[in-house]
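Let's practice the habit of predicting before peeking. Look at the sequence and jot down your guess about where helices and strands might fall. Then scroll down.
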Amino acid sequence: MSVDIKEIARRTLTEIMPNADVAALTEVVHPNCVNHEAPPGTPEGLEGMKQTMLWLRQVFSDLRWEIHKVVGEGDTVAVYCTLHGRQTGELMGVPPTNRSVAFRQMHLVRFQDGKSIEHWAVRDDLTLMRQLGMVPATHRK
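Done guessing? Here is the structure:
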């Protein structure tokens, strides 16, 4: 049976994460998954991915990922996307602002046996912080 890892990566961001679907996450994430971008203190494996997913839902209402491009080679998929949401929960000590945010991300996911086993991400956190008023926007001439 051939597994479409690009579709699994897409589904994870467009369906599973926004809906905080723990059962579905269990179907697509390996129990020993390594999330190289997890915050300090986050448990390893599937439990850490569950906690991250649930935390994101606490921080952002109207959470969704807009997928721009999905590229796969061998056992690895790259997803270029934008996270959209409204900050209705505390984020890095910042109380809810109710501001809408949209910031770009790049996820690199390695699969084993049809499940995510390794994850890396690069996020435009500066844009996020600016949108939440945490840092001033720079002015261009």
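How did you do? DSSP finds four helices and five strands in the chain.
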